[in-house]
Amino acid sequence: MANILDGIKLSKQIKQEIKDEVIQYVNQGYRRPHLLALLVGENAASVTYVNNKIKDCQAVGFKSSLVKLKNTITEEGLLKEVGKLNETDGLDGFIVQLPLPKHINQERIITAINPDKDVDGFHPVNFGKMALGIESFLPATPYGIMEMLSRYKISTEGKQVVVIGRSRIVGRPMSILLSRKGNPGDATVTLVHSKTVDIPKHTRNADIIITALGVPQFLKADMIKQGSVIIDVGITKVEDFTSEKGYYLSGDVDFPEVSPKASWITPVPGGVGPMTRAMLLKNTLFAYSKEIK
Ligand code: GUN
Questions:
Q1: Closest atom of ligand 1 to CA, residue 280
Q2: Which end of the chain has less neighbouring CB within 10 Å, N or C?
């Protein structure tokens, strides 16, 4: 049976470290770090995510703000809001929660964010730095997975890693980070996606599989090698009228059949998700520490 990569336990440790650091700054007379979240519209998942981010800030002693905008806001209107936040003193970082309404060009908004305040690490400048190995904000989910591998001392050097999914915020940066020099890193990375011919051919050879697909129970036992490390980024609501909530949360991995064959595995929920949340705080603390120096 696989060992569990416990994202809840690890994220608690990380949050405690952040909280301790904030206390030290405050004791030296500095202000608290400040993170702001910008939410456009009322997408249910986005509302939950943003509320969690605000809660996390409070838990570690950050100042936090939430700006809610109507989903009828124009692209120009949103650009203006971003411009204001870029210039706000004492605001260390802000995030524009994605997805944005369809009438707004997401790339245009992301590119308008001041890269020094882009604690999501989504701006092309930060993405470029990430790809080149220059210190920058790393996108929170891949960063959280790197931290998880590091703290569980799972070596990636020379390993065959398969990343499933090439999204802007998870799969693509994940594949780059693991192919960079260093630890974690130094892996041989294959990025598979919707146009890949024969995904199982690749996953069966992998020492480490990272799935970021959003297809419940996609990864089956016959698609993996004995003893591989399985990291599941997927989290999809599946309707279930027999449960109290009317749904359950499913990862991309068929956990009951895959876990006996794996050496390490992340649960869903309680794996990657809490790590993502912790790393946004880490990025904010990094922005803050550069700002007050
Ligand atoms: N939507 C889903 N994940 C994220 C994230 O990490 N940041 C932002 N801004 N939006 C998201």
A1: 6
A2: C
